[in-house]
Every structure is written in C-alpha cells, then in structure tokens.
Amino acid sequence: MDPATFAAVLCAAMAHAGWNALAKRALDPVLGVTLIVVLAGAIALPLLPVVGLPSMQSLPFVAASVALHFGYNLVLAEAYRTGGLGLVYPIARGAAPAVVAIAGAALFGEALAPTGVFGVAMIVAGVAGMSVRRPSDLLHADRRAVVFALATAGFIAAYTLVDGQGSRLSGNPHGYAVLLFVIDGAVTCAFLLMRRGAAALRVAPRTLPPALFGAGMQLAGYWIVIWAMASAPIALVAALRETSVLFAALLAVVMLREPLAPFRLVAAAVILGGALLIRLG
Fold first, then answer.
1. Which of 26, 116, 187, 243 suits 38 as a labelling partner, its CA being 20 to 30 A distant?
2. 102 Cβ partners below 8 Å, 6+ apart?
3. How far apart are CA 197 and CA 199, in angstroms?
4. pLDDT at residue 255, as a whole number
C-alpha cells in the first residue's frame, strides 16, 4: 500500500472512531446513530453535482450497500444500547477483516502476500484483545451486546465487499461514495419518520452540533475508504481501517470514562505491528 493511501486510511480510522463515540454518547443510541446518518446524507447532497454520478454498472452495488448499511446502523444502535463502547466497538470491527480477506480471495481473486496475511491476522487478534480488560472477561461479557456486535461485524464485512467492488466498477469512486451517502441518508430519514414521526427530527439544540460533527466524520471517513478500495486490495484497506479501535479506546477513556486495562495495551501493540506489516508489504 502506497504511503498516501496508508495515511489516508489511518485518518479514516480516526474519523470512524470519533463518530461512533459521539453516537454512543447520545442519550438515545438509536436516535444518535440515525441522526448522524441522516445529516451525513444532507451534507453529501450538495456535493453530488460537484463530483458527478458513478457509472450505471455500479448502481446495483449502491442499492445493495444502502440496504446493508441500513441493517448495520440498526444493529449497531442496539449493540450500543446493551454494551459499552470499549466492548462493542472492538468486537464489531474485529471479525470483519478476516471475513473480508477470505471472501475477497474467493470472490475477487485478491490473494494477499504473506506479509499482508500476517498483518491482517495481527490486526484481527489485536482488535479482539481490545474488547476485554483481561482474557477472562470474555466469559462474563453481556451476551446480548456480544451477539449484536458480531451481527454488526457481519454487516461490515458484507458492505465492505460490496462497496469495494462497486467503487472499482463506478469509474468515479467519489461519485459512488457521495451517492451512497445521499441515498442512505434519505432511506434512514424515511425510516425515522415512520418509526417516531416528525417529532424525531426536532432534536434538542445541544444534540445538533455533535451530531453534525459526527456526520462530517462519518462522510469523510468512509469516503476515503471507498476511494482507497478502488485501487488498493480490499482486505488490506478493511484491516487497516480497524486500527480505529485504538482511537476508540482512547475516546472511551477520555469521553465515556470507560477503563483501559494493561491487557489492552498489549493488544494495541499487536494492532500497530499488523499495520506496519501492511505498510511494508
């Protein structure tokens, strides 16, 4: 992976951790996640004439991705309702890169070099380790939170593969990313109105600034990922993006007052080692 793409995906990882932390801080996790998605679509809408539309060939992938992102947002909100950021986020993000690497090789012929394989494996192992304060915690974790987090991982792997291939067929990864956010925001807004009525859009003034900030981070973060997957191996981009757990762990400590145990520091070192292998490979 070239240095510019590597640095860009790391920035995307930071942005992803940031908007997830803001969503978790919301009093209502479902409203927090959906509001960020709706606002990201609103921010993306005026950008569509600037970046242009993707090719017709990629539109089925946009539609599939919108459906998968919709499911992802619902499951993620439920995961945050039942578990802390320090538990949910690493589990949700940890399983996805392994699935993407295996499926990417099987579906798209993207077999990784040995350094890439070891890098992905180290990141997966490190991300899993970040979800606990000590190994025995896995036996006592809230089962509902773990189930929702694993379901979230399944959606992540699916939409990553869809968007990776869609961006390559689009001829315009920027147009693909912006159109995806516009449609996803519109679908999510319609769902929010059906579920909670127009009152759901009348949010408290103090909620709007962090939601707008989170929406901007979500848009920028995944836009970068879609751009990167158009040229770099999907599995490597997906794995490197999961270094976001390092930033999420820091945010969980600073913003949410969740503990950071020594065991997680070891896991962080493993993640950094995996990222280095991906860069050198």
1. 243
2. none
3. 5
4. 66
Helix, strand counts (H, E) of the chain: 12, 0
* Residue spans per domain, the chain: 3-280
pTM of the predicted protein model:
0.83
User: Among residues of the chain, what percentage have pLDDT more than 90?
Assistant: 30
Separation between Cα atoms, residue 132 and residue 96, nearest integer Å: 18
Count of CB atoms situated within 10 Å of the CB of 187: 18
Q: So what's the pLDDT on residue 143? A: 76
Taking CA atoms, 20 is separated from 17, 80, 195, 214, 246, in Å, by 5, 9, 22, 8, 13
What is the helix, strand, coil percentage profile of the chain, to 5? 85, 0, 15
- At 67-102, the pLDDT tens digits run 998 888 788 778 877 777 667 777 777 778 888 888
CB 105 within 8 A of CB 41: no
Q: Half-sphere exposure (CA, 13 Å, Cβ side) for 245?
A: 37
**What does pLDDT average to over the chain?**
83
Question: Chain-centre distance of CA 268, in angstroms?
Answer: 18
